[in-house]
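A.,

Following up on our hallway conversation. Structure tokens first:
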């Protein structure tokens, strides 16, 4: 049985680790990484890096490599690949499972301002603050490049390129982050507004708690739409169990 994991996330890596920790005979796991991070954390199993060439390219790869199960464990904001995965799975009749971390929900004391896009988030900033902690990743800085008044602290795994805001300091770091660390970061840089995508998960959530404690408003960019009709699980262990169930069916092709 051959499983293709579209990964690059903490959840995808954890799923690969779970499958490697208790290996099944003749189970082949291929992890696909987009290649946008210079030094990704490599999961166990086979690894391929780079795109497929759209839904048709992915479908051709599924056929050519005899994939039995496709798992979309990409980032919630990597929306295009999720639609490509759904289309390729339909075309090839390969079962598709989405491993998608739940989004964040505001709690009492949060000062959240929702935005539908990075451009909308940029439009909210002048009324909210002048010292911005921007945690939306290096790929979307162009949406904020026209803002000359605010000062930005930009945190990303790799150094961003142009275009970007003219008043900017870059902090190269990779989660998970601690609550104490996020509290100190907001204090040291005198942050008065935070911008984040609704990535969900625990690795980067402490910034939300730190902002709530400090009374700092947070601009939260909503997730893009996901394909309809796809089975979704929230935890790597749930996905690993689905893999084992599919493996059992492959081992007993006459079952069901």
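Then the amino acids I'd put at each of the 256 positions:
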């Amino acid at each position: 049985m051959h499983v293709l994991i579209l990964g690059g996330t903490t959840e995808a890596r954890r799923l690969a680790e779970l499958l490697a920790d208790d290996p099944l005979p003749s189970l082949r796991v291929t992890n696909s990484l987009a290649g946008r991070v210079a030094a990704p954390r490599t999961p166990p199993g086979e690894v391929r890096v780079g795109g497929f060439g759209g839904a048709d390219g992915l479908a051709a790869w599924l056929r050519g490599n005899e994939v039995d199960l496709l798992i979309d464990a990409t980032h919630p904001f990597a929306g295009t690949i999720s639609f490509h995965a759904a289309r390729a799975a339909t075309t090839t009749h390969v079962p598709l499972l989405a491993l998608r971390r739940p989004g964040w929900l505001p709690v009492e004391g949060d000062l959240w301002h929702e935005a539908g896009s990075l451009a909308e988030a940029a439009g909210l900033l002048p009324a909210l603050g002048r010292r911005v902690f921007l945690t939306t990743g290096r790929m979307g800085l162009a949406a904020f490049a026209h803002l000359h008044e605010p000062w930005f602290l930009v945190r990303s795994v790799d150094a961003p390129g142009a275009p970007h805001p003219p008043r900017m300091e870059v902090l190269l770091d990779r989660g998970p982050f601690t609550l104490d660390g996020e509290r100190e970061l907001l204090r040291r840089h005198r942050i008065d507004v935070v911008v984040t995508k609704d990535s969900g998960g625990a690795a980067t959530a402490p910034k939300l708690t730190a902002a709530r404690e400090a009374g700092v408003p947070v601009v939260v960019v909503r997730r893009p739409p996901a394909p309809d009709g796809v089975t979704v699980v929230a935890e790597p262990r749930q996905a690993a169990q689905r893999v084992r169930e599919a493996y059992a069916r492959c081992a007993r092709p006459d079952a069901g």
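Residues 236-251 form the longest helix (16 residues). Curious whether your intuition agrees with the design.

B.
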